[in-house]
Amino acid sequence: MSNHPADGPKPTAVAAGSTTSTPTVLHSRCEVLSSRELGAYHSLTLVAPEIAEASRPGQFVEIAVPEGRDILLRRPFSIHQASRRGGWAGTLEVVFDAIGPGTSWLAEAKAHDVLDVIGPLGRPFSYPHDLTSCLLVGGGYGAAPLYFLAEELRARNKLPHLVLGARDHDRVFKPIEGKRLASSIVIATEDGSLGLRGRVTDVLEDALERTAAQVVYACGPNPMLRAIAELCRSRGVPCQVSVEERMACGLGVCWTCVVPVLASDGGGWWNVRACVEGPVFNAARVWWDRWLGEPGTSETAMPPRGAAGRREGVVEAGRP
Ligand SMILES: Cc1cc2nc3c(=O)[nH]c(=O)nc-3n(C[C@H](O)[C@H](O)[C@H](O)COP(=O)(O)OP(=O)(O)OC[C@H]3O[C@@H](n4cnc5c(N)ncnc54)[C@H](O)[C@@H]3O)c2cc1C
Ligand code: FES
Question: For the whole model, what pTM was predicted?
Fold first, then answer.
């Protein structure tokens, strides 16, 4: 990995989303402050004062992998922490699973390497005005942005309760920090190696009751988000999900990242870009069956009548 001077050029503004009024994002060369293993994941902390200052929970950054390799596209990662005050002010932390060439290359990054970063991107979670009890549900590394969110909720006198799920104990995201941060925490692992045996969806109903949750925030694998959305819809609890879709540009230009979203009056649907209009969506508005296929099949289906949309008047595809 090549080194560049850490005090390189000042960040430049990049126009995100050509068709909507999206806030300007920054393009910066960021020094790696630290790189470490975190259970099954890797954590990178970057010196990025301007991006950290502008970041909100639920937003993400896109990190370039080096020129001269066979990887053209930047890789998107949720912002786990954006430190804007204190000893390490001006830093950003991302946590990732090394599953392919881009993330494996990033896992080799060392302190003082310099990475090319664009951000903050996308729409953040919204904070509740009047509601107090918030249930944050994270699957695997999907829990990463929820820690940033929990801190911001606490700063607003809300009560963040946490449900963490993962395949095994190594993939449970920062359980000790979760205990410190959250008003209550439940952990579920599929193999039972930490907390309860099962999936987050197995413990969610109980957690909703116990915490009297008034709003749910979720991030993790898309099928998990769909199950959470369904449960929240049936119980009338508002839910925001941060989704993952394949992204090419991350800036709203290529339309590779579209998610079908139902109109608020149920009269139609639109393909919207996860990188600009998302990645955080109102879970009741995502047309899950069309996006992910009917549960257990690869087929898509029409939206449910009376759920968040109706079949009549569906627009085949359009722009918001
Ligand atoms: C908004 C957003 C936030 C994300 N946040 C994180 C994070 O905090 N931590 C983390 O580990 N990963 C995160 N991801 C996923 C991450 O971007 C991909 O894992 C990464 O781009 C894979 O790159 P690669 O070159 O290592 O593997 P590739 O060879 O590109 O892909 C390896 C495997 O991962 C799948 N994959 C690739 N990109 C995505 C994607 N965008 N979504 C889902 N699956 C994908 C591929 O289908 C393939 O099976 C996020 C994705 C998005 C869209
Ligand atoms: S429009 Fe290019 S990734 Fe979203």
Answer: 0.88
